[in-house]
Write a structure and sequence with these properties.
By secondary structure, this protein is α/β, with parallel strands linked by helices. Helix content is 39%, strand content 19%. It folds into two domains: 201 residues, Response regulator (Rossmann fold, 3-Layer(aba) Sandwich), CATH 3.40.50.2300; 140 residues, Response regulator (Rossmann fold, 3-Layer(aba) Sandwich), CATH 3.40.50.2300.
């Protein structure tokens, strides 16, 4: 009898310790946690985390840093939720496919990460997508534009940016109609982003009756592209299109004069940002770049002031996706709040419900406009890319009736 009483007392004592350790009030997990992916669980002191995947170091770090800074402001604006704070976690994928997979594996190992803003580059995104889908972690990319990303049936991937299908039309139209080019040389960096974009431009040029006199590949990271430029110059193109990123574009811009290429250069959104200006310096003058933008509004003006005050840089200077990254993070936070369930002192985020909620986004009002996602994860507004020219060391948006 005495042993039974001691056992009962010990059991009650252990139960009380467990209750305290778990935050006091205990309750059964909600039924939604029995579904695919289960639930992420948060006690009263946990933060709800959103991963931000992008190049945080290396030649293309401006894209990732800009995205992370925008995400930080989104978290700051979101405030607390049921007594818990949101937090963004940086994942440096260096803009590569292998890096994307490594960051994704790092993020899924942390059960408090429930969503991912990014990845920034298409190659990194492509490798990360199946990893997140397997763990029911939704993504919202601010800048991965490769057309094929949404044709894979992936439940996790969504994006706010228009695709390179749109961008390639804008680039080709600008070359043929605005610049009046009859012969164009196309160069690309062989990446998941650069090569398909360059191919799309070439295809659209052909449809417009413009000859692609060269379709040349370069290796990213090299510092001498003079051989390719000399080969292209011998073909006497009216203009050159480059599909790739800022570091390689800066090398091309610096060496085109010596190769005898005194013709306009045009690139896509991968060459929009202060990194290109810093690397190319005076050689960037006159370069044309296509890039989506955010409409002017009171909300954007307020955000722009907050971004500059917080980080000491103009929004849109590191990359053209400052506002898209803010909207992507804010949208994910709104969906987390929408599906979360509180039981006792525990907050649950049903993972499958969150994936479905993000994909089902309708009429979400952000800085970039009113966002609705389709069944494949395309959430971009039906707006086109804008054309900018570098003038006196700054990107200047060109008017619709611009003539060189």
């Amino acid at each position: 009898m005495k042993k039974g009483f001691l056992a009962l007392a010990l059991g009650m004592l252990v139960a009380s310790f467990v209750a305290v350790a778990c935050g006091g009030t205990t309750a059964a997990a909600p039924e939604a946690c029995n579904g695919e992916g289960g639930c992420a669980t948060f006690n009263a002191t946990d933060t709800i985390k959103i991963g931000v995947g992008g190049p945080m170091t290396g030649d293309n770090s401006a894209f990732g840093i800009d995205a992370f800074q925008s995400a930080q402001l989104a978290v700051k604006d979101a405030g607390d939720f049921n007594g818990r704070k949101f937090e963004v976690v940086q994942g440096d994928d260096q803009g590569t496919g292998d890096g994307g997979a490594a960051v994704a594996n790092k993020f899924i190992a942390d059960q408090t990460i429930v969503a991912v803003m990014g990845h920034s580059f298409s190659g990194a995104t492509s490798n990360a997508m199946p990893i997140y889908a397997g763990k029911f972690i939704p993504m919202m990319s601010e800048s991965a534009t490769n057309v094929d990303l949404t044709s894979q049936g992936n439940i996790a991937f969504n994006r706010l940016v228009p695709t390179d299908k749109v961008q390639s039309v804008v680039g080709a139209d600008f070359l043929s109609k605005t610049l009046g080019a009859k012969k164009v040389a196309v160069i690309h960096d062989g990446t998941t982003y650069g090569q398909p974009l360059a191919q799309g431009v070439s295809d659209n040029l052909k449809a417009a009756g413009v000859e692609t006199v060269a379709f040349e590949a370069i290796n990213p990271g090299e510092t001498d592209y003079s051989a390719v430029l000399t080969k292209v110059a011998a073909l006497k193109p009216d203009a050159v299109y480059f599909g790739g990123y800022q570091p390689e574009a800066a090398v091309l811009a610096g060496q085109k004069g010596a190769a005898g290429l005194d013709v306009p250069f045009v690139s896509g959104d991968g060459v929009f940002g202060t990194q290109f200006l810093d690397l190319a310096k005076d050689n960037a003058e006159g370069y044309y770049v296509t890039q989506p933008g955010a409409p002017l509004s009171d909300a954007r003006t307020k955000f722009d002031a907050a971004y500059k005050a917080e980080f000491g840089k103009e929004p849109g200077s590191l990359s053209g996706y400052t506002w898209f990254a803010y909207d992507g993070t804010s949208l994910l936070i709104s969906k987390i709040k929408e599906v979360a369930v509180v039981a006792g002192d525990t907050l649950y985020v049903p993972r499958k419900a969150l994936v479905d909620a993000v994909r089902g986004t309708k009429d979400y009002k952000g800085l970039t406009g009113t966002v609705t996602c389709d069944a494949t994860g395309e959430c971009a507004l039906p707006s086109s890319f804008l054309v900018f020219q570098i003038q006196k060391g700054a990107y200047v948006q060109l008017a619709a009736d611009y003539k060189p």
